[in-house]
Fold this sequence. Notes:
This protein has helices at residues 33-45, 63-77, 90-99, 101-104, 111-120; strands spanning 9-16, 19-25, 50-57, 82-86, 107-108. It has a single domain, classed as 2-Layer Sandwich (Transcription Regulator spoIIAA). The chain has a five-stranded mixed sheet, sandwiched between helices. The radius of gyration is 16 Å and the shape is globular. 39% of the residues lie in helices and 23% in strands. By secondary structure, the chain is of the alpha/beta class. The longest helix has 15 residues, at 63-77. Belongs to the anti-sigma-factor antagonist family. This is Anti-sigma factor antagonist.
Amino acid sequence: MSVAQNPLSIKVEVPREDAVLLTVEGDLDMDTATELQHHLANQLHHGRRHFLLDIAGVPFMDSSGMNIVLRAYQEVREVSGGVYVISPTPAVQRILDLTGVSITVPIVGSVEEALATADARPASPEPHVSTED
């Protein structure tokens, strides 16, 4: 029996045309991760390349939540974008560290830091062109 004791709330803001801030509150688990996935897919469809996930209000995240974050990361790499996790709680940070997600997906402390990190990354990987004959 699954009763949502900590239902998910997602607030969507667009700080600039290529980026979306999703402020997530509540448990991010098997019962709620699909809702976040729908928001991410919708924003990708609208041309957003940078996904700022403020999860300071997420006390618990299981593998379903981590999979959504990693799937988003893989999808936005195809459009030279990125996913930035903002202010995870200590419990969620521990899970991100233990699973290696924090190695792949940048963990930052603020929206401003996430946008600065996005701007510092190369727009797209440059193909190596040999000039030798």
